[in-house]
Write a structure and sequence with these properties.
By secondary structure, this protein is an alpha+beta fold. It has two domains: about 80 residues, Glutaredoxin (3-Layer(aba) Sandwich); about 110 residues, Up-down Bundle (Glutathione S-transferase Yfyf (Class Pi), Chain A, domain 2), CATH 1.20.1050.10. The chain contains nine helices and four strands, in the order βαβαββααααααα. It has a four-stranded mixed β-sheet with strand order 2-1-3-4, with helices on one face. Strand 3 and strand 4 form a beta hairpin. Helix 5 crosses helix 6 and helix 7 crosses helix 8. The protein binds glutathione (GSH).
């Protein structure tokens, strides 16, 4: 069995994604805590693993992989069951569309470095920025999500749920009103009830500062 190491920060939504995916596939890993609020992601030794200075980074037998979605795709290819993507190309494209609605359409806009540029140290400006971009992306996810079944894509837990749970966590932190998004609220509740999702939650991490 390969040795897996995950550079993670408790409140990082992209680290949260990979923690969920690893738990879903029952893959044990050793966490390496990178405190992104204190700037540890910018240290030269970390940048050799992840040159843009982001968490997460997954290391497999000493080889580093960056970008949470690419990491989940790697895990899916190495460990196809249980699957994070559906069987048909069309369904896979739809799930990837949900994933990218969050991964490209929301998360980059709530990243620390972007918030610093957008709002400086003014917390109100930062919150207003996030309260514009998060519901904008969630509205698109809501329109694309399944209107039946417990999860974002219907009957089965997929990579769309993996991305949704951390995004809803971030939305709640800044006080986004989720009532316009009943499919999202339903899917997030169903996914959060799964034990491997609960174990991946920020508050359950050893580096959590609550
Ligand atoms: N597209 C990347 C984004 C990673 C990312 O933005 N990570 C955030 C935490 S969720 C980070 O490390 N931020 C540090 C910073 O902005 O300096 C991924 O999916 O892994």
């Amino acid at each position: 069995m390969a040795k897996l190491t995950l550079s993670t920060y408790w409140r990082s939504s992209c680290s949260f994604r990979v923690r969920i995916a690893l738990g879903y596939k029952k893959l044990a890993y050793e966490p390496v805590f990178v405190n992104i609020v204190e700037g540890e992601q910018k240290k030269p030794e970390y940048l050799t693993k992840n040159p843009i200075g982001h968490v997460p980074t997954l290391t497999v037998d000493g080889v580093s992989y960056v970008e949470s979605v690419a990491i989940m795709e790697l895990l899916e290819e190495l460990h196809p069951e249980p699957a994070l993507l559906p069987k048909t190309p069309h369904d896979r494209a739809r799930v990837r569309g949900l994933v990218e609605t969050i991964n490209a359409g929301i998360q980059p806009l709530q990243n620390l470095i972007v918030l610093e540029r957008a709002g400086g140290t003014d917390q109100e400006k930062r919150t207003a920025w996030m309260k514009f971009f998060i519901p904008r992306g969630l509205a698109a996810f809501e329109a694309l999500a399944s209107d039946s079944g417990p999860y974002a894509f219907g009957e089965h837990f997929t990579m769309a749920d993996v991305c949704l749970v951390p995004q809803v966590y971030a939305a709640r932190r800044v006080g986004v009103d989720l009532t316009p998004f009943p499919r999202i609220v339903r899917a997030e509740a169903a996914a959060s009830a799964l034990p491997f999702v609960a174990a991946a939650k920020p508050e359950a991490q050893p580096d959590a500062k609550i």
